[in-house]
Amino acid sequence: MNIGDVAQRTGLPIKTIRYYEDIGLVKPSRAANGYRDFSGRDMDRLHLVAQGRQMGFTLAECQKLVCLNEDEHRASRDVRALAVENLTAVRSKIASLRALESRLQTLIAQCHGDDGPECAILEEMGAHQSAR
Length: 132
Description:
By secondary structure, this protein is mainly alpha-helical. It has helices at about 5-10, 15-20, 40-55, 60-70, 75-110, 120-125; strands at about 30, 35.
């Protein structure tokens, strides 16, 4: 299977697939014409990484998941531990985004939004009149 087919099937950009090849995540063989020839194993790896990235796993965590997936003697607790770590990180990001949302709502409410130059949003962000 060529890189275009793989990109279409996995939803990954060709540039990303090439990067994953550069870091050794996939190792497609080369056809006589020099084109990459991806195996079913490569497709499985790329699909797993694509799904993992969509779920918020880092690339390093996805590499661990690939290794665990290919290890017949893996312990499911190792996979679960990675998922728990990821969930903790996701929850932390959600909390940060909620705090940001609250801050923005407050600033928007404080800004008059009229023709005057005073703006609570810019003041909070540290903008100065001398910038004019």
